[in-house]
Amino acid sequence: MKTLFEKIWDQHVVKSVSENLDVLYIDRHYIHEVTSPQAFAGLNQRNQKVFRPDQTTATVDHNVPTKKSGFPIKDAMSKQQIETLEKNCREHNIECFEIGHENQGIVHVIGPELGLTLPGTTIVCGDSHTSTHGAFGAIAFGIGTTQVEQVLSAQSLLITRPKTMGIEVSGKMPDGVSAKDLALYIISMVGANGGSGYFIEFFGPAISTLSMEGRMTLCNMSIEMGSRGGMIAPDEKTYHYLKNTSLAPKNEEWEKAAKFWKTLPTENNAQFDKKITVDISALAPVLTYGTSPDQSIAITESINSDCDLQAELAYMGFKKGEKLLGKNVDHVFIGSCTNSRIEDLRIAASVLKGQKRDANTVVWIVPGSRKVIDQAKNEGLIDIFDSFGAEFREPGCSACLAMNDDKIPAGALCVSTSNRNFEGRQGKGARTILASPATAAAAAITGKITDPRQYL
Known about the structure:
By secondary structure, the chain is an alpha/beta fold. It has two domains: 4-274, Aconitase, domain 3 (2-Layer Sandwich); 287-454, Aconitase, domain 3 (2-Layer Sandwich). The protein contains 15 helices and 19 strands. The chain has helices at residues 4-11, 37-45, 76-91, 107-114, 145-154, 179-190, 205-209, 212-221, 236-243, 251-261, 310-316, 342-352, 370-378, 381-388, 437-446; strands at 13-18, 21-25, 28-31, 56-59, 95-97, 122-125, 139-142, 156-160, 163-170, 198-203, 229-231, 274-279, 286-288, 296-298, 331-334, 362-365, 391-392, 413-416, 431-434. The mean pLDDT is 97.
């Protein structure tokens, strides 16, 4: 009896080097402008071509300006990295979604929406949040630049086999809470290192009810538990999502693939190396108060008076025993590979419709791809954001990690739908509260931390 992870891993082992060390075949390799230049440089030094360029997909996302007037690119390093990626892809015959391309966007958004991310596959990228793709029943994980070169060279990786962890989520998702709230809650329970050495599978009744966008959010955040990645078994929702994508298998190939995908879920008597059960029947909107994603509380709670995170609280400007509700907010950022899909924008729009932006709060809404922009336009969401007073931008990673001009000013407090709230992550001296799109949108209305359930 095998788990979902074990089935996929075993099917992709090219060679077992030792008991826990395997050469693993990689089905899909995503690359972007930040972690690929050195890898290509290594290939070029050896006069070597990419082994299987058709299994590599490139896009620009980390450094692209998202402000509509942000072109041409002013930042010299950003410009160089983007131009280097485009040049490398041309030389090695790799498809690259450049600025302005209809498929350009955040790598972990475009892969699924195009149908390149498929169940039962192995997927890597030089980016830690590659775990996002695990929502489709794939083994997906981030790799370093040296490993990027390995995959470009041989379409394989020499890698240690992780242990398995099952997280069963029981109970019904309460009204007004989302996958982001669920992710932050689980991270707070497991801890920032609780998943270290493991690959996590999420399952249970609450997981089955999540949309594919919600599942991607949860798997995206699994890396914040220290795990190698997260995954969810494919089901009818997975198949329905993929059937509407442009590059997924078609006709007879679809039927053949779907038949295989249905064999993937974990078998009833399969054993995980570790198993945790989480009851979410009383879950409320969750947000962080410290400088690590595991430092979070329900929006109605107070920071624990026994909290020993003195340096973290000092950086954030918070105190033990106080609530975050009512705290003044300077910036709101709705975007990143965690929450920039069409469902996230729909949720934000449902909160903001008919409301006006707090005059003292800067609001950026950054879609994950050009396709998301088209959907948002067709559904009237952009009109809602414009009427509200938010700045709707071009697709890219933006203020998630502030690699370009999209930075939160020093000292400013930002409610962000991104995935990390480390010191300086969104800009030197910036203070970040991680939250769901609904909670971020509610803060944009009032200029304060606000329970979004009153607007939903």
